[in-house]
Specification:
Rossmann fold; alpha/beta; 2 domains; 10 helices
Length: about 240
Amino acid sequence: MALLEIDDIHVFYDKIEALKGVSIAVEAKQIVTLVGANGAGKTTTLRAISGLLRPRAGEIRLAGKSLGDTPPHEIAALGVMQVPEGRRIFARLTVAENLAMGAFTQSDKRQIAEDRERMLTLFPRLRERLKQVAGTLSGGEQQMVATARALMGRPNVLLMDEPSMGLSPVMVDQVFETIRTINQQGVTILLVEQNALMALSIADFGYVMESGRIVLTGAGEALLNDANVQRAYLG
C-alpha cells in the first residue's frame, strides 16, 4: 500500500474539468515527480491533496485512509505539508516567526526548538537572517524559508510546487540538492516541477501530465531517457 494514493480524481473549476481521472501512487520515502507544461494540472493535483480543492469523483488516501472531506488544517496535522508555488512566505514576519508558524501543528516546545535548530543546520544562511523581515530576502532565501517552514511541521509527505521557479541556475542546483537531502532524512516528497530534467534526475518515479491527464509514467531515469519526454520537455 502506497503512503499517498490519488485514485481516479476529477476536479473542476466551476464547469471546467481540470483533472480528468488522475491516479498517482507515492511510496514511503520516495521522491515522486509530476512534470508537464503550464496548465497541465500539476498544481491542481497538489491543491486537491491539501484539501484546498475537492474532487467531484475519485478518492485521495493517506496511509490507506480516505481524506474525504477532511479540512486543510487537519490534513496538515496528519503530516501532509506543502511548499506552495511562489513560496508564499509571511512577508511581513521575520524568518524566525515564519519558522514558528510552520510548527503550528506541534505542541512540544523542546521538539520545536530541536526542529528549528535542524532547519538552521540544513539552511545555514537562515541562521544569519533570523531577525530579518522575510519579504526582504532574495528569492533563493525565501525558498529556503518556505521549505523550512513546511518541514517544521514534521511532514510524512512534503508537497513541493515549482521550487526552482524564478531562481538562478546556481540556486536551482542548491534547491535540488536540498530536496535530495530532505528525502535522505526520511521525508517522502511529491514534487511538481517544470524543470523536467532536474526533477526526473532525482525522482524515483515520475508522472507526465497533459491537459489534466496522466499520459506517461515510469521510473525517473526511464522517463529521462524516453524519446517522447525528451522531445516534449527536455528540448
